[in-house]
Amino acid sequence: MIRQHPDQVIVIDEAYVDFGCESAIPLVKEYPNLVVVQTFSKSRGLAGLRVGFAVGQRPLIEALERVKDSFNSYPLDRLALAGTIASWEDEDWFRQYRDLIVASRERLTVALQGLGFDVLESSANFLFARHPEKSGADLAAGLRDKAILVRHFPMERIENYLRISIGTDAECDQLVAAFRQILT
What we know:
Elements: E1 10-13, E2 34-39, E3 52-56, H1 58-70, H2 78-89, H3 91-114, E4 118-119, E5 126-130, H4 136-145, E6 151-152, E7 161-165, H5 169-183
Parallel strand pairs: 1-2
Antiparallel strand pairs: 2-3, 4-5, 5-7, 6-7
Enzyme class: transferase
Family: Belongs to the class-II pyridoxal-phosphate-dependent aminotransferase family.
Keywords: Aminotransferase, Pyridoxal phosphate, Transferase
């Protein structure tokens, strides 16, 4: 439940909402201090364009527009706008792309679990996984030696986890094969 705090704005980042979550956009009507933001980077495959949108009641959107107009480090060019519009209008492609990522995520989860990994449940385009017998740093280094990059965060509580982006099935197969070599 979102509490009403007239002096505070609540921003909900829905970067991964299309991969299996429910959007908070319907709540905007009820809460004047709520802004929901989404990106085209994840489920629409437009990471390089840095395109997204915000949904909120008019006063909050006007405030965002004032900030954008006074300081905008990511201006949208015609190519970015064309790509964004095409992506938004092609709902069939979007669904196929999203469903492919979800299927690959599930397939990779099963494969990693088969190798003994603990894989946290994901509703995103990445997995967070650890192996009980190898450190995250060692696994990341072993993958790097095989020209496979994953994210490793050397921070307390998550130092043994890897953040693994979902690629194509062929890329996921290469990752699993690399893990098999590293773990033996």
